[in-house]
Amino acid sequence: MELKGIHHVSALTAKASKNFDFYTKALGLRLIKKTVNQDDTSVYHLFYGDEKGNPGTELTFFEIPMAGHTYEGVSSISAISLRVPNDQALTYWKQRFEELNIEHEDIAERAGRSTLAFKDFEEQRFILVSDETNEGVAGGIPWDKSPVPQEYGIRGLGPVKLTVRSAEPTVKVLTELMGFRKKGQYPSFIDGQSDILVFETGEGGTGAEVHVEERKDLPPERLGRGGVHHVAFRVDNEDELRQWAQRIQQAGFPNSGFVDRFYFRSLYFREPNGILFELATDGPGFDTDEDIEHLGESLALPPFLEPQRKQIEARLKPLNTKPE
After folding, report:
1. Hey, what long-range contacts does 201-204 have (CB within 8 A, 24 or more apart)?
2. Is residue 195 within 8 Å of residue 185, measured between CB atoms?
3. In whole angstroms, what is the distance from residue 98 CA to residue 63 CA?
4. Distance (Å, rounded) from C-alpha 263 to C-alpha 304?
5. Helix (H), strand (E) at residue 19
6. In which band, very low, low, confident or very high, does the pLDDT at 324 lie, cut at 50, 70 and 90?
7. Pairing of strands 125-130, 196-200
8. How confident is the model at residue 323, as a pLDDT?
9. How is residue 143 annotated by DSSP?
10. pLDDT, tens digit, for every residue of 12-45?
């Protein structure tokens, strides 16, 4: 029982159409699934990723049309990283962000790697991270029909940063319950703050790290558009997920139990600082119900929602995701 790395990260948007344009046209990701939030079928759930949505490349958004701003604080996933092939790719992206008027910082070192922080149109916080010197979990394969050249394309998810009031309880869960190893630490970009701690799992590397930032000067985050709902970690298969369910139950953590999301199987629980963690299986995958050449072009519903298609479609605002 060893978690393999980051599986996906799910965030919030208030505008599905603008979200689709930004992530496919500006960032060059592929929309791999247009579906609905299975817990609230009145809103879209959009999945972006590499050429076929391999585990570890999936960035997802729930559309909450009336969502307010996110007010940054503790008990949060405060930054999502996206992997790019090398340092040269960061130079390409910096120039691209300038041309597209996307808010960004300068290229800087984090945890021994070159990085480039930026924000989307809803101030979602991102960090591009270079795989120039990376060893560990392999990245994905950027879609060859992307507007971004493949040699610079986003290869998947990098480290997620957790910001908490007290690091110790979160670290204990990561290391003692979930099997993460401490890899190191690096200085905060904010004067007077503690170093950010780095933990890794599985083969390690950018696709398998969690960074923990302790901030005693912030209030709890108020989550809205431009905020992150949860992070999911990779479990090899369904049998192993059921073992994790037992382990988490025995450790005394309230949890969702086994959940069938059709494209993968899941379990959810909150760590002591209140951040929502998910464990998710690598399969079955996103081409289970759609041809690989046409992923994300139509509204996909898992079999248990298919009988409600007419009612679900009637509540959704049309969203054209077919190629132009």
Report:
1. 201/2, 201/3, 201/4, 201/5, 201/233, 202/2, 202/3, 202/4, 202/5, 202/136, 202/137, 202/234, 203/4, 203/5, 203/136, 203/137, 204/135, 204/136, 204/137
2. yes
3. 27
4. 12
5. helix 16-21
6. confident
7. unpaired
8. 84
9. -
10. 999 999 999 999 999 999 999 999 999 999 999 9
What's the half-sphere exposure (Cβ side, CA atoms, 13 Å) at 206? 31
For the residues 300-315, what does the mean pLDDT come to? 96
pLDDT value, residue 156: 98
Longest Cα–Cα distance in the chain: 56
Q: pTM of the full predicted structure?
A: 0.97
Strands (E), the chain: 6-13, 30-37, 40-49, 58-63, 76-84, 104-110, 113-119, 125-130, 156-164, 181-186, 196-200, 209-214, 228-235, 259-260, 264-270, 276-284
The helix/strand count (H/E) of the chain reads as 5, 16
Q: Confidence band (pLDDT; 50, 70, 90) for 287?
A: very high
Task: Give which of 129, 136, 93 is closest to 113, Cα–Cα.
Answer: 129
For the chain, what percent of residues have pLDDT higher than 70? 100
Q: Are 15 and 245 in contact (CB under 8 A)?
A: no
Q: Which CATH superfamily is domain 6-315 in?
A: 2,3-Dihydroxybiphenyl 1,2-Dioxygenase, domain 1 (3.10.180.10)
Residues 6+ apart with CB under 8 A from 264: 7, 55, 280, 281, 282, 283, 284, 285
